[in-house]
Amino acid sequence: VVKLLLEKGADLSVASNDGWTPLNIASNNGHVEVVKVLVEKGANISVANNNGLTPLIAASVNGHAEVVKLLLEKGADVSITNNDGLTPLIVASANGHVEVIELLLGFPDINVNKPDRSGRTALFFASRFGQHQAVQVLLSKSGINPDTGDWTGSTPLFAAVANGHLEVVELLIAGGATVVKQDGVGRDLIWWAWRTGNPQIPQLLVQHAERVGSHMPHDPTPNHAISTPFDPKAAWCDACTLSIREGCGYFCSGCDNGGFGLCAECFDGGIRCREDSHVLVLR
């Protein structure tokens, strides 16, 4: 049908009001044969929708490995970013698409430590979402930095610890992540570990610190610090990375397409948007 429409003069570069072109849509949905036809007919493989989503990013976020492979073979930029600074590697890592990650890492020019606008790398996102297979693959890449901090000073290990991902914590520690460290508001890893309610995580951190000759306090988190269950589908705090309960978050309409948010606890603690002039709204 696509071939017929193109033969009849259909415009392959036409876009919707949101900037979606036929190639964007086909890539997003994993229609590899349609992608192949559109590319062969001259479709722009770097065209982005209004949010900066290119065909390669769309295919990567949804785990469409065949489409990713085809686009890369046709010269798609492996390090291209959307409006929020998210790369194909970051979105694939956040969603645990290991086959796509391996394809992207196979390109020698890829910067495995390239951060988004908040300073978060592919390893950070994989760690925050508990994607242990993705973390394992990323850590095997030469040049990976397990201690890259985001805009608040939090590292991938902070994100894994705070959200209770024990297996990822183990992988990061084995990969050389620093365990004696504080985030931007002065809270150390052990504080976040006790807060999860899983005693295995603080025990793991303490044991590792002792093995490398570092001191880590054993005191548990204060009683007022409430455990927040990890919810992969919920909005999450751009400061502490914890899931935000419905109606308990403060969001900025001017950042990350309205997706930048803070939990009530971080907001009450004085943390605000990356841009001082922006206003956060409770919702």
From TrEMBL:
Q: Known SUPFAM superfamilies for this protein?
A: Ankyrin repeat (SSF48403)
Q: Which Pfam families match?
A: Ank_2, Ank_4
Matches recorded under SMART domains: ANK
Q: Which domain of life is it from?
A: Eukaryota
Keywords from UniProt, A to Z, are:
ANK repeat, Repeat
ANK repeats: which residues?
1-17, 18-50, 51-83, 84-105, 152-184
Name-wise, this protein is Uncharacterized protein
